Amino acid sequence: MAKVNMTVNGSPASGDVEGRTLLASFLRDQLHLTGTHVGCDTSQCGACVVHVNGEAVKSCTMLAAEADGAEVTTVEGMANADGSLNVIQQAFQDHHGLQCGFCTPGMVMSAAALLKENPKPTEAEVRTYLEGNICRCTGYHNIVKAIMAASGQDVGAIAAE
Amino acid sequence: MPKDSGIGASTKRREDIRFLTGQGNYTDDINIAGQAHVYFLRSDIAHGTINSIDTSAAAAMPGVVRVFTGADFEGVGGIPCGWQVTDRHGEPMQEPAHPVIAQGKVRHVGEIVAAVVADSLSQARDAAEAIVLDITDLPAVVDMKAAVAEGATKVHDDLTSNLCYDWGFVEENKGAVDEAFANAAHVTTLELVNNRLVANPMEPRVAVGDYTRHNDESTLYTTSQNPHVIRLLMGAFVLGIPEHKLRVVAPDVGGGFGAKIFHYAEEAFCTFAAKACNRAVKWTSSRSEAFMSDAHGRDHVSKIELALDAENNFTALRTETYANMGAYLSTFAPSVPTWLHGTLMAGNYKTPLIYVNVKAVFTNTVPVDAYRGAGRPEATYQLERVVDKAARELGVDPVALRRQNFVTEFPYETPVAVAYDTGDYHATMDQLESMIDREGFAARRAASEANGKLRGLGVNCYIEACGIAPSNLVGQLGARAGLYESATVRVNATGGLVVMTGSHSHGQGHETSFPQVIAEMIGIDESMVEIVHGDTANTPMGMGTYGSRSIAVGGSAMVRAAEKIIAKTKKIAAHLMEASEADIELKDGAFSVAGTDKSVAWGDVCLAAYVPHNYPLEDIEPGLEETAFYDPANFTYPSGAYACEVEIDPETGKVTIESFAAADDFGNVINPMIVEGQVHGGLAQGIGQALLEACAYDENGQLLTGSYMDYAMPRADDLPNYQVDHSCVTPCTHNPLGVKGCGEAGAIGSPPAVINAVVDALQSGGHAVDHIDMPVSPSRVWSAMNS
């Protein structure tokens, strides 16, 4: 067991972990931040994406011990200070970019990372960036639309609704 | 003007707030104080005799609570099958025992051999490695036709063969069908495979069993589409727990697509073990476990023949299908290739004579059961592929051939036992043609060819039977359950409502769409209505969500209960306003007396029901709570026309979807935004089947596609934007909302459009390819072009 200390969603967090404990497990089981989901065991689905020191990371593929001292942001830390949905979250609701909600935390975190590095992505760039996030419900159409809308671009040309 | 609330409004989903902020309550988020964890040791061989299982070392490992094997489940019931099919000779299907933990033999990779319960999952997993298994390998049967050949190894020694049933439908029509083929001017024949798929909801299955000794009550938290069905099956048939001592909770569920309908061994295990260990027991599936333990879908091998007369009218249809059941019968497995498949073989066409033969086969593979569409995609794919091939053989336009044979008069009795109440297949085809610029296709093809690519256009229709299902009908067809739905509407004293429904939402947005209906009926704000679902303790006995049934059956139950509420509130209002009940009108949340200016608000009437100081107590009881059970009179029949354009790179064989258009008739629509989202998701799964997905076994029964590294899930960059339309509306005639259901349409209608387009593209390049099996991977396409 080793002690880890990190800042999660702006607050200090610590715990004792085995060497094999994954960051996703630490967040879910010890910090009870169950918004981060685990949908696969091969780093393919992206439901577990969080930000570590500002970078999008699949938390099922990182050891909790590796995050010692890091700044971690999960989906629970994404809303505005007053608790309202942030611009990405609001766009997902406005454009029906989620159905069952299970992939959604990872989608929101990946979308935030994308828009940070590419504030006005093309539709093709959004689709390519989401290669590491699987959604089984939406067919991606409305996720892509939501992310484009969150970037401030006109999505009227993207069909439906 | 689009409405901004009530029926027909694209109300934003209220459930999104918790999902977008990480506040969802999925089963894996549930932890019970003192819970233990189970790790299942699963068979890594497809078929073998269990000689011994030595658990002594494992039981002594740190943190281990108890190790279970099949021996611990002797005397416990097996996993039941909910549907019995009668074969073409009048005999019941062969139905093997389905143990919770393997007994004597293992029959597929992934079958549970032992279970370790420990304080932590890591300890359970570590201990499982110390279990010593002695299993003698037996030959595995994987290929269906080989499985039913003379002398094949039997999956179940106590059955006469690997044939579950040989079903003929309609058996009495067989002679007439054969005669029509003998007299046909043209016969088109096609052999095809409907590829085996894995449903893959993004949330893996989870089960948490809990037990309280003081009152002998068991609770199961589980990822289910139908908690009441699980309670009935597990309580009555597996563990012998009466319903009043068993609660099943399915909280937020992360997608289902059919795979979470069925009762699984892990659910029974966790409930059983919680009592045996006197502490909660939790299991969370890994994705690898999901691939080898979630029921798979599809896996049909079919031959279909279409007979036409000299004027290109369809005169008869004949099919022979081998349907894989896997090693055991999952909950609804026998119904999928029969009643959910054979009854749809008429499609949109007035073919007068149809005969469907289905041979269901046991193999050493994971059980196969319903996956989005369930039987209807298999029927549609065969039919729409053979019609397209016929058009090509006859040199006629495939759309014109379809139109010529459309059913145009309703109600229409098909020769395969169902009656379509409404539809307008020309209208959806007209709508589709207006969406796809068919005239411009030649120019688009020329542009593709100028870039060295091939371009194809595929068009098809579909019809499905949804709103499952009339209980008396399915009872005759072998269902061991009724398929009604239930709702309780509780009005609170100040006028807010709670609807407790037997339907279950796992992505469909019921918490938003169901209140739209109630709000419309009463004329109140949608926010005054709350939906409760997913817990047998606080919802009436209902059958859950699958078969595009929630709004058509569950919504209808809710309407019926609300109608009872409204009738009672009108009596109260009449009393309060000293008027005749017949003169009371309810509009915009207020009761008025016709022809007067008297009015009383909805909330005041509700309050009077709970504070009955001035109340007709001699006529009606206080309180406002009503329950309705709604059993549909018929299936509903959504229909539509779909078109796909593909481009093929001849250098690599890679197929790219250039556009996809869907024109559907879902009857009336409650929330267009949600309906369109359902279609998008269905299309993605259908396109995924056509383009990418295949669950593969080798000849030894080893699962080759056991993770997302090997099983190609559709990603954002594999799929196009979709054009969807549901403006063609022929309301269902037999439910109060006129709705038909929309959840499965996309998955049913889209695979043939893709393959029709691929064949069109290949033929345009001079390749003599009249069929290519799904998924149309680059290697398959390249091989077809270069063979």
Question: Gist?
Answer:
Chain A is α+β, with helices and mostly antiparallel strands. Chain A has helices spanning 23-30, 87-94, 104-117, 123-129, 141-150, and strands at 2-8, 11-17, 49-52, 55-58, 71-73. Chain A has 2 domains: 2-77, Roll (Ubiquitin-like (UB roll)), CATH 3.10.20.30; 87-150, [2Fe-2S]-binding domain (DNA polymerase, domain 1), CATH 1.10.150.120.
Describe this structure in words.
The complex is a heterodimer of chains A (161) and B (787). Chain A has five helices and five strands; from the N terminus they run E-E-H-E-E-E-H-H-H-H. Chain A has 161 residues and is of the alpha+beta class. Chain A is elongated. In chain B, helix 14 runs parallel beside helix 15 (550-576), helix 15 packs across helix 16 and helix 17 (672-691) crosses helix 18 (745-764). Chain B has 787 residues and is of the alpha+beta class. Chain B is globular and about 85 Å long. In chain B, 27% of the residues lie in helices and 23% in strands. Chain B has three domains: 16-22 and 484-630, Aldehyde oxidase/xanthine dehydrogenase, molybdopterin binding domain (Aldehyde Oxidoreductase, domain 4, 2-Layer Sandwich); 31-138 and 205-284, Aldehyde oxidase/xanthine dehydrogenase, a/b hammerhead (Aldehyde Oxidoreductase, domain 3, Alpha-Beta Complex), CATH 3.90.1170; 296-469 and 634-786, Aldehyde Oxidoreductase, domain 4. At the A-B interface, helix 2, helix 3, helix 4 and helix 5 of A face helix 1, helix 17 and strand 30 of B.
